[in-house]
Amino acid sequence: MSVESVVAAPIAKTVPTERVHHGDVFVDEYEWLRDKENPEVIAYLEAENAYTEARTAHLGGLRDVIFDEIRSRTQETDLSVPTRMGEYWYYSRSFEGKQYGVHCRCPIDAAAEGIDAWTPPRLEAGTEVAGEQVLLDSNLLAEGHGFFALGAFSLSHDGTLLAYSVDTVGDERYTLRFKDLRTGELLGDEIAGTAPGATWSLDGTHVFYQTVDESWRPDTVWRHRLGTATNADVKVFHEPDERYWVSIGATRSEKYLMIWVGSKITTEGWVLESDNPEGEFRVILPRREGVEYSAEHAVIGGEDRLLILHNDVVDGVKAENFVLADAPVADPSNMTLLIAHRDDVRLEDVDPFSDHLVLSYRREALTRVAVWPLTDSGYGELRELEFDLELFAVGPGANPEWEQPTLRIGLTSFITPMQVFDYVPATGALLLRKEQPVLGGYDATDYEQHRDWAIAEDGTRVPISLVRKKGLPEGPKPLLLYGYGSYEASMDPSFSASRLSLLDRGMVFAVAHVRGGGEMGRLWYEHGKTLTKKNTFTDFVSCARHLIDSGVTVADRLVADGGSAGGLLMGAVANLAPELFTGILANVPFVDPLTSILDPSLPLTVIEWDEWGNPLADKDVYDYMKSYAPYENVEAKDYPAILAITSLNDTRVLYVEPAKWIAKLRATKTGDSPLLLKTEMSAGHGGVSGRYEKWKEVAFEYAWVLDTLGLTDK
Q: Which are the catalytic amino acids?
């Protein structure tokens, strides 16, 4: 007797609820699932979990095998590459059997000089480190909690104090604490309900932190003087406009504190000397709708300057991909253009050091890094770092010191485990400090990665990145196609030891770099948001069709994968082209976007209006969103097998969205493809916490993918 005949799928009751906007009446039969305080809602979610477990029970052995494979490739007891800050090397440890990392430091060699003083010690896993001091053991902090996340981990400039914060619920509200590293004692100061970060004043007497409003929006910056009661903390900045998030940090030089206020399309910065923590922040450039900028402190020719990346109009043309300028700290509006706008290069960041700048940008859908020396008179010759890989992702790593002769960078690809280098600007030397160990005889030459291009409906070329094991049989391959396509987020090539469990079973992994992401520059993002959002979905469909038409795969061997806003993509393509996929994996999927974006009281809604449009105020936006919202466009037709995974305590994409989606699909669709909903009852937007729990979750997903593709015997 089959599992299907023993366990019936849960059927959610219907409670018609009318939603009326712009004269349109939408009857929502599953909105009642929003009330998680209702025992009937919890009972329904638990029934879905039980059904999912029953439908996947036959995969228990495969899940165990995949978990063991992931574990066997991982050097569980390991150390990160030490980073020098002040008189110490800082690093983290992992230990076999422990879920979380341990943060440590050891003293530098006082006798070392020159580049030797910046050559990190080679610390061996499982061996004692001379002079090691454990700063924070997350395993101890997580004891007794089903969920744990570390938020702030911020050292005072003299290295004597640590500010750290923890979340043991998954709702992204942290408790901030302080530790005296000279004695190991916790200070009495404790601040509940904070956002993740913490920023020290130069002298270590004050800490700046943020709190969030009822919609989980960081909106206020506070100043806390160590040793004083929290009710004496001073509110130094508050942003009432719900479209803007607030953050605080310091310049790399540590000379200035900076408050940043940003919506999806507009930025404003405020600056204060870090040695004057009780002073008044002053605005850098007043906000102007649609203008984004960032600013960093540099010393050019002996003068304090601000390096400003911005997308304002330059010479009558909007600098969509950003330009770089510098200006006096006292007069930021008096800018001198350093790097002009280019259609094919998206400037993303600038990191100033005492004697050079580091530029991060992307060209041809790949990240790039260049070093620009500073001279007595200004700027030297810019040098881009080059790597012998068709696909890669590169960027600056941990470089906390203002004056250092090396630049820490990280390099990875689909086939290259993360490599940590120290680049020496003075000589051009690239020194490999560590490559992520992959146990079990991994050999990058056994795999291949390459770039392909699909043609979208409007003729736009859409990049696709693919990785597979060499020597696969001729003919169409089973393929997992991943996509995201929102917020200008770029899905850059990266190595995954877990993914080898798919590749080694003959699968191809591909990423569709659809519009709405940032891979091809700012306009790539602009052409996949608000009233052009459907490009994201049709681009993904075009990529799937291209992979089928070119013989890489076929529809019954193709599974689509996406999470969060990528889960919206999954829901949309399920409606648009269900015939192209045999399965869809949707993590914390944003599949009821119109209901959410119509409710300003929900977390993140108002700030999201710049991304999706404001359907409350604009009928055109309402009609457009309704035309693609996955939940509202479910139809009586055959759909692929679907696995939706969500978290009860997620504050970003509420569990109710996938719960309603699956309920409506089950009541509406035709055919017999299975629909599964798995709700983590003690997790946040990022899912479960702890590396072993995450590996179990990956094993669960991969086993479902392999089963959907008929590869469980591989």
A: 564, 650, 685
